[in-house]
Amino acid sequence: MALARSIEKFETLLWNTGIARRAVFTIVLVAAISACATLPNVDALLDRPASSVRFQTAAGPLSEKKSAALLAALKRKAGDTDILDKHVAVENALVETPLVLGNRVRLLHDGPQTYDAMFSAIASARDHIHLETYIFDEDEIGHQFADALIAKRGQGVQVSVIYDSVGAIKTSRAFFDRLSAVGVEMLEFNPVNPLTARAGWQVNNRDHRKLLVVDGRTAFVGGINISGVYSRGSWPRGGSGGSHANVPWRDMHMQIDGPVVADYQKLFVETWEKQKGPRLAPRTLFPALKDEGREIVRAVGSTPDDPYSQMYLTLLSAIRSAERAIHLTNAYFVPDPNLLEVLRAASARGVDVKLILPSRSDSAVVLHAGRSHYSDLLAAGVKLYERRDALLHAKAAVIDGVWSTVGSTNLDWRSFLLNDELNAVVLGLEFGQQMEAVFARDLAASDPIERETWERRPLSERAKEWGARLLERLL
């Protein structure tokens, strides 16, 4: 989430607790200093020798021969695109988690569909529920989740929840205490108050992940927080306009069943242990998993402790390898020089590069910082669109129709350097076609940014962009 929103929440908390106004500026200053992390040498990493591609199954790794045969079959189905050779081999050398076969993936198109699927999975839990979220609002949706988790705890299911301190800063302590009182294990990620931190305190490190794992067999991952703002779905019904809470929030999520769920479980446990949460109760965290479908999925998690953001390099690698189409949908677009360069280069070699971005945002600073790059991208032939009649919050991509991702990672410095993020990468034409259909529907609900018209925008808008551009590394 953008720093501007985080600062607003910090200020609310500080005033509510009677801390002097100057403390706000102290925190902002510390946040600004800590944001001076640098991105890696992308060329050196992406140009290093690629490793041979190995696929994982529920029974273990495939042999090199079988992996090569599978990759060849994927290429034939996809129209012999080299992205599967070039990108997958490079990604294998960059990302710690494997490409896992045998998964069933369901694309969830909006908040109501996602919440219905989550509540159904929670109701079916028999052993444990692991929930990790940035925002856990104390509203109708938040209470529905709390009630569902409390009910399962009453049935003997172990429930463990990680919530971000800044993301949930407006949620009362009493709300979380109600959960703790019945035995739900609650872990506050990197507390705002350093005196309550269990692990090393870093003011600007936020857990931006959205993950639900049920019984170690089903995982949900994407961009949807626990908040009533998603309750209206992603598509307008009647008029638009009004406050952000009164327009649809356009977002998406995924439900995954199959062997790759073990990798999402590992990522949850790693975060729990790194934040020094209480010892997880002895449960069957890693049950024997079987094939549930035909999708090839990689779980990609990133943290500021890593040498580089694995999702950042994975995305850049995919864009560099694209031959036909790069279709990106993203909520917070504050690109760094590397991302700008690979997008321009792709357009120059004839790839159809389209970005769907917000026309409105819960952070005006982020919106204008992103727009400050429009002229450069339009001049390079990149096609830009802004989603109308909704507040765009999705973070998704489909490249050459065969490489897709949905998750929590925004196209901004904060996601690439400062946040814990989590995505799913799916290889294959069938799921890629679903993603392309969703992209086409969003495209139809978006307005194109024409270069000639854009260059005639008012001076007042240019001034906002200039000011926001100065802050883009902090957003």
Question: Care to describe what's here?
Answer:
The structure is a single chain. This protein has 475 residues and is an alpha/beta fold. The protein has 2 domains: 42-101 and 296-474, Endonuclease, Chain A, CATH 3.30.870.10; 105-274, Endonuclease Chain A (Endonuclease, Chain A). Helices cover 39% and strands 22% of the residues. The protein has 17 helices and 22 strands. It has helices at residues 3-16, 21-34, 42-46, 64-78, 83-94, 111-124, 140-154, 173-181, 261-274, 310-321, 337-348, 364-371, 374-379, 413-417, 429-444, 451-454, 459-469, and strands at 55-57, 60-61, 99-108, 128-133, 158-164, 185-189, 206-207, 211-214, 218-222, 249-250, 253-257, 295-302, 325-330, 333-334, 352-358, 383-387, 391-392, 395-399, 403-407, 411-412, 419-427, 446-448. The strands form 3 sheets. It has an 18-stranded mixed β-sheet that branches. α8 links the parallel β5 (158-164) and β6. α1 (3-16) runs antiparallel to α2, α5 (83-94) runs antiparallel to α10 (310-321) and α12 (364-371) packs across α17. It is globular. The model is unreliable at 1-35 and 238-242 (pLDDT under 50).
* Count of runs of 4 or more consecutive helical residues: 17
> What does the radius of gyration come to?
22 Å
The averaged pLDDT comes out at 87
CATH overall fold name of the largest domain: Endonuclease, Chain A
Domain module count? 2
Instruction: State the separation between the terminal residues, measured CA to CA.
Output: 8 Å
Can you say what the CATH homologous superfamily of the largest domain is? Endonuclease Chain A
Strand content: 15-25%
Q: Please identify the structural class as seen in this structure.
A: alpha/beta
Kindly state the percentage of residues in helix. Answer: 25-40%
User: How many strands?
Assistant: 22
Q: So, CATH architecture of the largest domain?
A: 2-Layer Sandwich
Task: Enumerate the spans where pLDDT stays under 50 for 5 or more consecutive residues.
Answer: 1-35, 238-242
Query: Largest sheet at a glance?
Result: 18 strands, mixed
Q: What is the CATH class name of the largest domain? A: Alpha Beta
Global morphology: globular
